Amino acid sequence: MLSRVEISDFALIEQASLYPGSGLTVISGETGAGKSILIDAIGALTGERTSRDFVRTGSDKAVLEAVFMEPTDDPEIEEDDGKVLLERVIFAKGGTECRLDGHLVKLADLKQAGDKLVSIHGQQDSQIIFKEREHLDLLDAYGREEIYPLLNIYENLRNRWSAAKKALANLGKDPQERERRLEILRYQFDEIESAGLQAGEEEELKQRAKVLGARERILRDLGETHQILGQDDEDAVGTLLQKTLEILEFSSRYSQKIRTSREELQQVTADLAEIKSDLMDFSRRLDIDASELPLVQERLDLINELKRKYGSSEEEVLSFKAETEAEIKRLESGEADFHQLNAELERLAAELETAAGDIHVRRTKFAQELDADISSELIDLDMPNVQFKTMVKAHASIGLQQPDSEAETPATGSKRAGWPKSGTDTVEFLISPNVGEPLKPLAQIASSGEASRVLLAIKTVLASVDKIPVLIFDEIDAGVSGKTTGSIAHKLKSIAGSCQVLCVTHSAQIAACADTHYLISKIVESGRTSTVLELLEGEGRVDEIARLLSGAPEDKVTRELASQLLSQT
After folding, report:
1. pLDDT tens-digit profile of 330-378?
2. Phi, psi of 529 (to 5 degrees)
3. What is 1-122+499-536's CATH number?
4. CA 385, CA 445: separation in Å to the nearest integer?
5. For residue 231, which phi and psi values (nearest 5 degrees)?
6. Other beta carbons within 10 Å of 14
7. Domain-by-domain residue ranges, the chain?
8. Where are the beta strands (DSSP E) in 258-386?
9. Of 19, 22, 140, 197, which has the maximum CB count within 10 A?
10. Could you tell me the strand order of the sheet in which 387-394 lies?
């Protein structure tokens, strides 16, 4: 149950504490006193989206806290056992901070926890029963123990069917189309394969082309280098080095230093001879390959053509070749895969039909039970002549988007474009508020007051199967008056027997039924307006109920009536 709510600097609330009781807690006050602000604060605490505009003017942040406790009468259980703490900080500069049991969490995590603890039903929420999608969800929630497991089976089959359908689409349904695709892929693979392209080849060819393009100049330079390094001329480097070795030969016999230097000079001479030999070999090859440049350029043109077709680089071309080869293998074995996947689709479609049929049977069963329960609740809410019916229809063609040529799809539904979530049923609430009128969709018949009562009846029925411990109703009595309001009050009291109920109201009858009653009002202090919460007891409750009755709490007759209302609950 919701044990405590602390609100600081949220809108007009500077500081407020709310301690709801275990049964029905009512919050009343003048119009504009801030009742909706209180609901907004609890909504923000349970993960609803909020805005920095809610931060009180002059404050840098709004702080919201809520404590939920597992109710127990066992003195052996520690106070903190079963406690859940929700916290939300809203910053004036933008952004929020969420905590769950003191730990920072994402907003989605806070909302997930809040959804399990609190269900808020505002005035606009009565409109949800006008939406057919909500009707399906409400019926499934009513029969959850039997329907939810079947929905899980159906969803698993639906995912497998979708995967098989996607795999079949990748193969191509038409064998002739698949063969045409194979022909194209084989041509592309063969073109790259016959080229014999190697990784890094293009860069090597470009460097070779540069060399061949400068062949004449390179040959001349190499000839001059050979002359300088050779021994054909007495001024050549090779000749001079050899002469130097001969000159130092005698002296090296008498000096270790000279001998070492002469040996190093011999090494230099040998290295120079090797360099000269390498350059001469390169010169001879370059002289022989005079016709190589056109061949290199032709090879580069071939590589560029492959890049134009299959990728912007050698790596992309080779990657395209590998992918093409893999697809060729897949499509070549596709005939067997095609028949296998078709058989799989047929089998899964048959299982989906069966699963959808099982769901339909359960929904039909629970629709009848829901109708009986809601009709009983509506009688308690002063709608004794109403007829309420949950219409469950199974649509074999729901969600189909197939061409006319597939109009005669077999009953297995293997050519479906898709299986809808939650089965093939549509659910619609029908109502006849008055005797002699036909059943029509709820949206066409129900007034706002009737819609509120139907929603309350549904919530009453679902309270027995819904495990959410706290229900909050924001002016569920809007649009109703008189005896009907009293019926709603007693119905809220009944719901509060199985879960904790908070209700914002303008109704004296509802306020009188409360186990705990808070008054919300505005005060002005030091030129600032604030909203405050006050727990009402004794004469304070009489005053507020009298105000709700006539707006004149000081009137003696009204106060007597208020006292009577309190004594009757």
Report:
1. 777 766 677 788 888 999 999 999 999 999 999 999 999 999 988 888 8
2. -95, 135
3. 3.40.50.300
4. 14
5. -125, 20
6. 19
7. 1-122+499-536, 539-569
8. none
9. 140
10. 387-394, 425-432, 440-441
